[in-house]
Amino acid sequence: GANFSADDVIYTLNLIKNPVVSSPLISTWQDINVKKNGDLEIIFELPRPYSSFPFTMTFGILPNHILKDVAPDQIRNFVIENRMNVVGTGDFKFYRQDENTETGQTTWYFTGIDGRTHVKNLDIKTYADSESALVGFENGEVNAVTGLSINEIEKAQKMSDVKILQVPVDDGVFALFNNSGQFTSNKNIREALRYAVDRAELRKNQKFESEPLETPIMTGVIGEVDSLKQPDFNLEEAGKKLDEAGWVLGENGQRTKDGVQLELNVVTVKGADYEPTAEFLAESWRKLGVKVNFIAADPATFQIDYLATHNYDVLVYQLHLGADPDVSPYWLTSTAENGLNFANYKSKINDLNLTNAKTETNASKQAARYADFVKQWISDAPAIALYQPKIYYLSRSGNQSFSDDYKLVSLAYRFYDARSWSVSTGEFMITP
To answer: N or C: where does the chain have the smaller number of CB atoms within 10 Å of the terminal CB?
Structure first.
């Protein structure tokens, strides 16, 4: 019942900047001053240019009129204890949450605000796994579903009265070399492994073909970067690279150097849509004479056993790229070993390129900085950009909801236009 205003935004930002709250966003906002300029306007004062600043303003806003008297160090506990009293500014109002302890399913119930939505109610259900979600869709528990594996999508194709949308999401699937690994620290070996992968054939062999991706920056963000490409598949050149590094192909079809066999641990997540991609890479490198140990890790232990410790020679993994060209968390030297730099990539040149690009306010100069970063990235071969994945969205033919003309910066963006969703009821159709 209270109006949303600048006070709510300022209150939220002051909490983010307060060390006792322990917000993960504090490093971004701690040096930025925030001032109110009327009920619906805010002025941000930055200590230095920061071209990616607009992309930082995606956090949720807390209601000042409810929380202003709660001590900052008690905010988390207060929110948890009152999690059923959700306050927002959207077109739907939350009114109930049900949890089924037997199935582990949670359902959130929303009602549309009069005059602002076409459907009266919107329910969101969770399922324990993708197979259960497909069964729920088939049984009519839900009108639409996403988060399904490719195997489930194949099953859904056999159903009647079903629409299947395939929409690229702003992510990238990469083969990330451990640049500190016993073998993958050698640039010749990394280049050879890159030459040995036929990326076009990889995409062609997928059950649902994906979009090509050539660089660590999302396609369509910077024109100068879109024109840059990784080297094409060339198995002969791959062999030459290994020969130059002293890895000789023996009569047994294996490459050795000074009595040591060239051996790689290739790790991915079991059950992920990109698991077959990792298998394709493993087989490609075996043809090159490399011994490959393929590891599809249990999702429950993957984080601890492999990702956090960088315990692999090659990691096949999906990274969120988004609409922001600033991908520095994945490639800065300072984020190697213990951060999001899963390739353990270290380059003083690219540290400068990325840092300078973030502070450059001239658009053409910024584009040139990012282009320089990508050129050096391709030259250093710390990873292989494989493809841009898609999400698969199932719905009934009588529903009008998520559209394939959306640009999906993230999966949650599918709810962007929920106010215009509609559903057929008997002989009638509620339409926008």
So the answer is: N
- Residue-wise pLDDT tens digits, 312-353: 999 999 999 988 999 999 999 999 988 899 999 999 999 999
Measured at the alpha carbon of residue 325, what is the angle toward residues 322 and 330, in degrees to the nearest 5? 80
C-alpha span between 26 and 21 (Å, rounded):
9
In degrees rounded to 5, what are phi and psi of residue 423? -145, 140
Amino acid identity of residue 388, one-letter, is Q
Residues 207 and 291: their CA atoms lie apart, in Å, by 27
Q: Rounded to whole angstroms, what are the CA distances from 15 to 39, 57, 67?
A: 19, 15, 11
Query: Greater confidence, 409 or 92?
Result: 92
CA-to-CA distance for 175 and 181, rounded, in angstroms? 14
Could you read off the pLDDT of 86-115 as tens digits, one per residue? 888 889 998 888 988 888 889 999 999 988
Say if strands 390-396 and 162-168 run parallel, antiparallel, or are unpaired. antiparallel
Give per-residue pLDDT as tens, 111-127: 999 889 998 999 999 98
Task: Report how far apart, in Å, the C-alpha atoms of 51 and of each of 40, 58, 275 are.
Answer: 23, 15, 36
